[in-house]
Amino acid sequence: MKKTLIITFLILSTCKAVAQIANVEEVFDLPITLSESSGAIFFNNKLITHNDSGNENKLYELNTISGLIIRTITITNATNVDWEDIAQDEISIYIGDIGNNSGNRTDLKIYKINKSDYLSSSNVKAEIINFSYSDQVDFDSNPNNTEWDAEALISFDADNLILFTKNWVNGTTKAYSFPKNSGTFTLKSLTTALTSGGLITGATYNPLTEKVYSIGYNSALQPFVWVSENFKNNDIFSGTNTQILLTSLGFEQAEAITHIEDNKYFITSESFNIGPLSSNGKLVSFTTNDNVLSNVEQVTSEFIIYPNPVKDILLIDNLEFTSIEIYDIQSTLLYRGYNKKINVSKLSKGLYLVKINLKNNKYKIKKIIKN
């Protein structure tokens, strides 16, 4: 039975802006199979999740009404060394084998799965993105006392992923950006770090609100959410960062977060048993009041996006803008550019939203159909 929780939270903010989280609700206990759920996305109207270190190389589709696992997908060429988060864009799903509790791994990687393969078969093969940290020089084993663990991964734009470290030493979280194509990469940290006050265990980027929501918990297993917004380019922590303690949830080892609508989010937690404290893994939901696509500037001068429907080249006339972004209907950012002529030939057929960014942080939205 669902239990609605009255939320009481403490807000620690770097500026005057206040993020609001409401309607926090325990939806249900997770099935025993998912007692170590560690990452989550919402795709095809289902929650997709996985377990963490030492578990099977499988993704699980969870019905968010019944709480039942309705499908299991095996990644045939993958090993679950320590799967810690999952992200998606229009074309692909990305599984982060990024957990590194002892700081001594030299086999960190992302498994990239084509969504069409995922939908058509229960056994899929992944491309592999290998990476290391350019600023890591010490690979001695130091369990739960390392800077080089990571549990949070987001898809930021059409070309790049960003991961956030889980720093056991002092709680300072760094962000690293890297390409989505297979290969081997040495990652350099982005400019700004976050003093998280705990362990960051998951993250999601909502492109239509342009905010990153990161989940984690402190040393007392008190779950919290960090909201990062108004950042510059991809430097996620360069803007306003607001921490919200989810005190109404009590003690929870919160592990994953994903947006399912513009203003609705799911959290999964892992079961634990520490001394007198124990808890089953849970699915939790909450809502926000972020500004979304409907809050756009009314531009008096008429402008034209054509042809619509479009097959190859999209043109924009009679409007000055700072940048152009294209999103699918699941709010995934597929394109960001600065030209009035956009090649959309690689997009799949369907409905898309074109966001035209104007001056003074205003924007205009148009729907297009790709043939």
Kindly describe this structure.
This protein has a five-stranded antiparallel beta sheet with strand order 1-3-27-24-23, with no helix packed on it. Strands 2-22-21-20-19 form a five-stranded antiparallel beta sheet, with no helix packed on it. The protein has 371 residues and is mostly beta strands. The chain starts with a strand and ends with a strand. The chain has two domains: 286 residues, Tachylectin-2, Chain A, CATH 2.115.10; 67 residues, Immunoglobulin-like, CATH 2.60.40. The chain is 2% helix and 50% strand.
Number of helices: 1
Largest sheet: 5 strands, antiparallel
Overall CATH class of the largest domain? Mainly Beta
CATH topology of the largest domain: Tachylectin-2, Chain A
Roughly how much helix do the residues carry, as a percent range?
Answer: under 10%
User: How many structurally independent domains?
Assistant: 2
Termini separation comes to: 45 Å
CATH architecture of the largest domain: 5 Propeller
Average pLDDT confidence is: 88
Unreliable sequence segments? 1-18, 294-302
Cα Rg? 20 Å
Strand content: over 45%
Total beta-strand segments: 34
Helix-strand category: mainly beta
- Strand order in the largest sheet: 1-3-27-24-23
**What is the approximate shape?**
globular
